[in-house]
């Protein structure tokens, strides 16, 4: 059985491979965008107007598109039990903030209507219950942390975007998280639009934290992750927008203990062996 040090080293190598993959993917897309750019030149009142395609990247997990080589089941060990204290913003936000949701080039993984651009409240909390195959997972969304993210999650939940989807990724070494929110179930899908990060340097991650997954700066969409254990190594690049209660985390713990189907022994990153299917996402009134 691999030691904790070996698992951490494997997780680090995995992250490095993902970063290389994403850089190559970004470079390839930039080339495609340049080649496929449509330039429309029209004389309007003596002016020249150019219409060009935008190079927009959606949410995605590099591991989802890699070809498995040698599958194994890795199980979570030494899961922390203490809840992580979410760092508040050093300077509170004003009562309302302006939110913008930008349409992307990638099609939506599931039909939805993007939230309206405009002001959203930056105070108060919203309760959301995810009805899943392992039982109810209770979330508390905090507008004071990330008002635009909370608004986005609530709007998608009300449209049943998360209904009948599966949590496609479970990591058990290096970081311990359960990732969900892609209707396609492969980590590459999103809602067809993106919005900016709502991060700050004081952010840290640990048991009970609810945060957005992304594929780079300002690429938030619909994918999110629940931290059920250790994630202290994560940099403050992922928008934290709420918390998960202890009873819900215990259910995720059991999934983590049964393991994740990794592509290589000791990798600790793949689909959960015990499926976590989201049947409904109900927003409290």
From TrEMBL:
<feature type="region of interest" description="Disordered">
    <location>
        <begin position="256"/>
        <end position="285"/>
    </location>
</feature>
<keyword id="KW-1133">Transmembrane helix</keyword>
<protein>
    <recommendedName>
        <fullName>Peptidyl-prolyl cis-trans isomerase</fullName>
        <ecNumber>5.2.1.8</ecNumber>
    </recommendedName>
</protein>
<keyword id="KW-0472">Membrane</keyword>
<dbReference type="InterPro" id="IPR029000">
    <property type="entry name" value="Cyclophilin-like_dom_sf"/>
</dbReference>
<comment type="function">
    <text>PPIases accelerate the folding of proteins. It catalyzes the cis-trans isomerization of proline imidic peptide bonds in oligopeptides.</text>
</comment>
<feature type="domain" description="PPIase cyclophilin-type">
    <location>
        <begin position="131"/>
        <end position="283"/>
    </location>
</feature>
<dbReference type="InterPro" id="IPR002130">
    <property type="entry name" value="Cyclophilin-type_PPIase_dom"/>
</dbReference>
<dbReference type="InterPro" id="IPR044666">
    <property type="entry name" value="Cyclophilin_A-like"/>
</dbReference>
<keyword id="KW-0697">Rotamase</keyword>
<dbReference type="Pfam" id="PF00160">
    <property type="entry name" value="Pro_isomerase"/>
</dbReference>
<feature type="region of interest" description="Disordered">
    <location>
        <begin position="104"/>
        <end position="123"/>
    </location>
</feature>
<dbReference type="GO" id="GO:0003755">
    <property type="term" value="F:peptidyl-prolyl cis-trans isomerase activity"/>
</dbReference>
<feature type="compositionally biased region" description="Polar residues">
    <location>
        <begin position="110"/>
        <end position="123"/>
    </location>
</feature>
<keyword id="KW-0812">Transmembrane</keyword>
<feature type="transmembrane region" description="Helical">
    <location>
        <begin position="31"/>
        <end position="52"/>
    </location>
</feature>
<comment type="similarity">
    <text>Belongs to the cyclophilin-type PPIase family.</text>
</comment>
<keyword id="KW-0413">Isomerase</keyword>
